[in-house]
Amino acid sequence: MSITFNSETFRDDFTYYNSPEAIQRFPFPFDEDTYMYAVNMEQHNPGERGSVLEHPIDVDEHYVAEMEDRAMVLAEDPKRTQTLPHMETAAWDTLELLFGLMARDYPEHFTLERDGTTWHWINRPLGLDHTFTFGDSSTLPPRPGSRGDVPMEPLEYVTRQVQGDYAVLDQRADNLWMDAGTVTSQADWSLDFDIGMDFYEWHGPVPLAHEMGIFDRALKYLLSIEQHNPGRRLNWTMTINPRLDTSPENYNTWGVDRTTVTPENVGEKVHLRVELQTFFRLPRSNALLFPIRCYLISLNDLVTVPGWGKRLHRVLRDLHPDLAEYKGLTTYLPTVIEWLSAYDDESETVDQAG
User: Whole-model pTM?
Assistant: First the structure.
């Protein structure tokens, strides 16, 4: 089925919107009335037709606008995409996996033809038609804005064309190391700061989970992921305005937004931000590809789905203060809870996770 792509922005005038279909397929992350960290990992099996889990890589109505926003971020800060030298094979692995899945699952929008190492890639939504030699970075298109037509690295080339952030994790010494990535829509963390760190180091700031043994169990699961058996989990936070780029590097732009929430604008300005995190074992490098796909929904849209407003009210009302602080919610959380209380009739809830 062909996708109609929105004309929208994630900055300045914030014209981002969700169609009724996008609201219904939004990955609501709560299956209980309370929330605490857990090793909520499972196999990334195909989901229901039309859901965000139907295909391994989800392409939706926000695709073109998200790629335009990524291009703007990379033009402003090229360090948002990095590949350490020993990760080149993993980068080509990533390109092969993502282009292959997009062409297989969305053939009306993407085509990949292979003749040995000569590959022909067509991306119709972005108007791209490229032929290159697989494994030879010099044959890739030039990096936008580069002097002397410097070709893109394979990781940057592919991740400029697929929604979500991408960390590529090297596996060695019974640990995972963030040694490559393209990260432009993250929830207040920095690839440039975390590059080269191991699993425990980049999760260092997370409260409570270390003491609960969450990361020990999560790492054990991730190290065991095999080819053709990817995993997934959902994570969440909240964002003021439908802004993708909430990085530490850009805090001066978005940090003040947290002080602008009022009882009158909370439904429009406050967005639930859900990450569909997936994990793929790459074939040549044995690295782990870690896509982090961000979905945004305003509270106004969220409460149109029966049960979601009630459940979110209870989750936020009873959220551990350390988690609220870590997620940056404390400034406006009381206003959100009060607003959501109108959607909670105090009756028993049922499983509303989507």
Answer: 0.96
Catalytic residues: 233
CB count in 10 Å sphere of residue 281:
21
Indicate whether 42 pLDDT > 70. yes
Mean pLDDT on 263-289: 98
State the burial class of residue 224 (Cβ atoms within 10 Å of its Cβ: 0-12, 13-18, 19+): exposed
CA–CA separation, 272 and 241 (whole Å): 10
The answer to whether the beta carbons of residues 287 and 172 sit under 8 Å apart is no
Tokens of 274: 């859900």
CA distance 97 to 230: 12
Residue 307 CB: number of other CB atoms within 10 A? 17
Q: Are 109 and 129 in contact (CB under 8 A)?
A: no
Q: How far apart are CA 85 and CA 303, in angstroms?
A: 47
Please state, for a pLDDT cut of 70, what percent of the chain lies above it: 98
**What are the residues whose beta carbons fall under 8 Å from the beta carbon of 87, sequence distance 6 or more?**
155, 168, 170, 179, 180, 285, 287
